[in-house]
Specification:
Radius of gyration: 55 Å
Structural class: mainly beta
Strand content: 35-45%
Distance between the termini: 102 Å
Largest sheet: 6 strands, antiparallel
Number of strands: 51
Shape: flat
Length: 876
Amino acid sequence: MALNSIQPRHHLPHQNNINMEAHYHKDSGCKQQLNPVVANPSLANRPSHPIDRRGYQTSALLSSSGDSPALSQHSSHHHAKHANLGSVNQRHKGVVEKLLHSYGFIDSDVQKEGHLFFHYSEVVSDVNTLVSGDSVEFNLSYDYRSSRWLAVSVTKLESALSVSKEQFSGIVFKKAEPQENFKSCLDRSGKISYEQSGETFFIPYSTLDLAGENLQEEDVPGLNMKVTFCIATDKKTGHMWATAVKKLQPPEMSQGVVCSLKENYGFIERADMVKEVFFHYSEYAGNIAELVLGDDVQFNIQHRNNKEVATNISKLPEGTVVFEDVSTEKKRGKIAKVIKATRKHAEPLAGSITYETADDSKDIAYSERDISGEFTLFVGDVVDFQIAKDRRDGLIHATNVTLCEESFIVSKEKRDKGVVSSVKESYGFLQILSADCSTGVGDAQLFFHFNELYESTNTPVVVGDEIEFTIAYDPGNKSKPIAIRIRKLAKGSIKQEQQVSSQTFTGTVTQDHPAPKSKKGSPHNVSSTDTGLIQYTNISKESVFIPYLVKDADLRYGDKVSFNVCEMKRSSDPHSKKAVNIKLLSRLGLQTGFVCSLKDSYGFIETVAIDDEIFFHYSCYHGDANELQIGDVVEYNLASRNKKISAESVRRASKDKLQVQVDGKVISGHVKRMIGNTGAGDKSGYSGLVTVETTSSDGASATYPYGFISLCNKRTPPVVGNQVEFQVARVSGSIDRALNLLIVKDLVVGRVDTIKGSFGFIEMEEKEKKVYFSMSDIQDGSTLHVGDTVQFVIVPVMNGTNRVSAVCLRKLKSSPVVPSTSAPARPERLRSKLKTQTSTTEGPKLVVVRQPMRPDGKGFAPRVPRQSFVKCEESV
């Protein structure tokens, strides 16, 4: 603003009396409103003689002195021109507009025709802290040499306005109307809503707070539009408002192709540059299980921890993303350099192809991605390819590299033929059928991977496909042959010479692969290549094995069959045979045995002949496996899996199924062989043996086999040399065996204390607690009474507890007094009480001659038991 006259030094107005117009704060992008104050009129039109700090005099001083008229005239003209500048000692305010090497310029309203110059030497504070846009306070001084006003004694002012460096996002809740003047920030007409820390806030703004100048209508944020802004705060009042408000532009979507998928993250190859970007599965909008390698996707780029990551990922139609331009012309060349497998970071284009042009030969690079598959390539292979140019960096390389049949003719590579015998998820096995196999692998299954198919085909590899291949050795295992460079052949391309013998052989199935049914009755799938084994005697009287296809016959372990031998002749293995024309002669049928062991999820069955124990899984038991107990009689079918015999379709059978005849006589002997103490494959030695010395004239000893079921104490089986006692039994007409076998040193003696129906308790002298026994465990068939002396064995109860019970009871001595059956015996506790009481014959004896009577002589009425009282409510 302008003052009416220059004021003297000693009458300088107070700093707050300076009237400054609102100016624009360039750092914050908002406008700061200062209260205008009118200058004191009493200070106007007073003479002044100020001298600035450098000795320059103002025009007012020169005009009042007696100097030359010319200078006085010039000073008068200058004073008339700049009379609005006020006193040189008056402090003015402005904003730093520009800073150069050693000087700068201040934008202030005191200089209408231009900006005020100042030198860094005139900055009172640290000049290094001064930046463009800072508010400053200064004095004026006139330079006669340049005829211009200068700013001196420049001091940086602390701004009353602070603007957040952080940007916020929000939504326009109320659109701001055009507004030029307002008393405070609360008068701003617009409002923005934003969230922070889970809470919603509203902050005012005006059209003056919009970012940018000369905004078009489409750039002005409207109602419910998303915006970004900074928060300005007035330090004096604490009021806040939004500044630098601008529309939130949607982030630009990038495109790419999924090139890597890990456990919970992956990488995308970008289409705009040769670079891969990381992404987490949580950033994918759809079902991550549907995302596969090679899918075209679009995404946003964000920076997290100073690294680029892909967000908001969505799938694009196939073929949307194009990395390179590929020529339609196919060229033919030879592999000059193959790509070597290495764990280290390899070159992007590690391979090279040499091809002929019209002028000369050229080399062109290729990568693993440029090969139409993952098959093996050798140096010198003839290949077809196309030339491609990458859109991102202009790199030229070969792509769609395919192997030509000409390669095998030029290199004279040995090729073999075979049939696919087994197929897994990404690999399989094949059977060689070439007449002159290049290696001596014989009938062994040859491994191959699907990636080695060098001809693209829409049909998957299945069992029975005829293929052509090259035999090589696995790089990781030099002794393992594998099939590479595979090509599918048409059906019937391989001619096999087969000869079926006219002689019929008889054998037994030793390894089956049936289709067992589950408990619900649904059969399992059987592959057409699954095989079993039949053991038979050949022409040379040798016991041999021959395979058969499971699909040719429904056989089980132990089946007697007849068959013919089919022999396929080829030089690599002239004895390749299999059984054909199989006929079932007899079936082994259901087997019967005893449960001899129970584990967490499986158990073992002891055969009736005591020659083996058969494994079975609880899933093969028809019923609740928790109800099974050791010694239960079960029926089952035998099966062979991976050369191991097991029981299937296990069912509990009645104990009457096996006829057990037990001789009551107790025999003493010594253990000659323990259970299961046998060599590999010797089933005859599974059972244990007990030897009994006889008194016959020939001195021969009798031997009895025994099994796990024969033992009284199944937790502590006897060892060789132990003296044992047992009974002889015969089960379903089989050989005699030892039963109820116990170790003599384990025998103990006790007295029957209590009998309660089908069980009782035995009292032992060395133990305080009585031992439980069951009447079914009496070995000699005698009848026990209380007080009988018995001999028995203590065994732990097989229920996971620490309780014990007595088994194999034998009566040694009967009780001296047999209690009457008419009256029950007096309980032991009462007998013990009578023993402690002493009887005497001294003194008079009391005899009851009359029962007590009431005073009325009627006697006491019999006691009537009290009845319970029930309150009944009357029905309404």
